[in-house]
Structure formats: structure tokens, C-alpha cells
């Protein structure tokens, strides 16, 4: 096993731990939450663009959009450049749901950090200070290579 394999394995384990222990979906699928987050981050888009960005089929994202629209988490709006087409955008309720989820994750993490002895918290803080910029660059590289 190479050093890169060790790093890849550690990052994979960390990602799994975060997903298992900190995710609170609130009845929504990971795809639904990812679509809402993308709309919040990127703004109004056509369903075809959302499907491509999320790596799901157009029919799947269409059905998902219908469900999210019924829950008032997104809405369809007319495409100003093409009267035959529509766009989707996140609603205020969708933004509020994402903000609440972020707050819950933050509170869970803060509570977990309270269980650490001060020296472990200091070690984690220093490791994250160094690792976070690197992980952000990895995420950007992944985006450039077509990974979500």
C-alpha cells in the first residue's frame, strides 16, 4: 500500500464517519438535498442542467423537482430566454431547511467536540487548519474532472 493509498483510505473513512454520524436528512434523500444545495449555491437553472450537474437522469430529476415543488422547497419559473422552457429555483422554505440542517450539524459537531480532552481538540484544530485548504483544492480538482 502506498502513502497515497493510506491518505485515500483515511479520507474515505472520515467521509463515511461524517455521513453516518452527522447527516440529518429530515425525510429527504441525499439527491434531493444535493439538488437543493446546488440551487442555493448556483441559482436558478434548467432541469436538464441540474440533472447533468447532479449526475442523475432528466426523468429522475423531473420527478424529484415535482416532489420538492409540492413540499414548497423549489419552484418553477419561466425561462426568460425561451418561453417554452422553465427553470427551477430554491424557495425561502428550501433555504430555511438547508440552514436548519447546517445548524443541526454544527450543534452535533460542537457537542462531540465537548467530549474531547483539550489536547485532542488542539491537535484536531491544527490538523484541520492544515488539511482544510488541501481538501478544498482536491474538491476543486474533482469538480474540474467532472466529479460531483
Automatic annotation (TrEMBL):
Domain of life where this protein originates: Bacteria
SUPFAM superfamilies (alphabetical): Winged helix' DNA-binding domain (SSF46785)
InterPro entries xrefs: HTH-type_Bedaq_tolerance, HTH_MarR-typ, Tscrpt_reg_MarR-type_CS, WH-like_DNA-bd_sf, WH_DNA-bd_sf
The entry's keywords: DNA-binding, Transcription, Transcription regulation
HTH marR-type domain location: 1-133
One Gene Ontology MF term: DNA-binding transcription factor activity
Alphabetized PANTHER family for the sequence: CONSERVED PROTEIN, HTH-TYPE TRANSCRIPTIONAL REGULATOR RV0880
Name of the molecule in the record: DNA-binding MarR family transcriptional regulator
Top-level taxonomy: Bacteria, Bacillati, Actinomycetota, Actinomycetes, Pseudonocardiales
Amino acid at each position: 500500500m502506498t502513502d497515497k493509498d493510506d491518505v485515500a483510505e483515511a479520507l474515505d473513512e472520515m467521509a463515511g464517519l461524517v455521513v453516518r454520524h452527522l447527516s440529518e436528512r429530515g425525510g429527504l434523500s441525499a439527491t434531493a438535498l444535493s439538488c437543493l444545495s446546488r440551487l442555493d449555491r448556483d441559482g436558478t437553472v434548467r432541469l436538464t442542467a441540474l440533472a447533468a450537474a447532479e449526475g442523475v437522469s432528466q426523468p429522475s430529476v423531473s420527478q424529484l423537482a415535482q416532489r420538492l415543488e409540492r413540499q414548497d422547497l423549489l419552484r418553477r419559473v419561466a425561462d426568460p430566454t425561451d418561453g417554452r422552457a422553465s427553470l427551477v429555483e430554491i424557495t425561502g422554505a428550501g433555504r430555511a431547511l438547508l440552514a436548519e440542517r447546517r445548524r443541526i450539524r454544527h450543534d452535533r459537531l460542537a457537542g462531540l467536540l465537548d467530549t474531547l480532552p483539550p489536547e485532542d481538540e488542539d491537535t484536531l484544530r491544527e490538523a484541520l487548519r492544515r488539511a482544510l485548504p488541501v481538501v478544498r483544492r482536491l474538491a476543486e480538482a474533482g469538480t474540474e474532472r467532472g466529479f460531483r
